[in-house]
Write a structure and sequence with these properties.
With about 60 residues, this protein is an all-alpha fold. It is elongated and about 70 Å long. The chain starts with a helix and ends in a 10-residue tail after the last helix.
Length: about 60
């Protein structure tokens, strides 16, 4: 059983070591797009909340 595990797992580990940096580089633009979209949503939330904040509304304190 151990010999079978060793024979099967070490090639998979080498493939993972080689492919991980490539996958990381391929997903980098997607993470940057996600960061930009998150920023746009935060800006929209701030714009929509601005009139209420000018009138004195404060967000509830977060618990946790």
């Amino acid at each position: 059983m151990v010999k079978l595990l060793l024979a099967v797992c070490w090639p998979l580990a080498l493939v993972a070591l080689v492919l991980w940096p490539i996958v990381w580089l391929l997903t980098l633009p997607l993470r940057l797009i996600g960061l930009a979209v998150e920023g746009v949503f935060a800006l929209l939330a701030a714009i929509f909340a601005l009139p209420a904040r000018l009138l004195g509304w404060r967000p509830a304190a977060r618990v946790g």
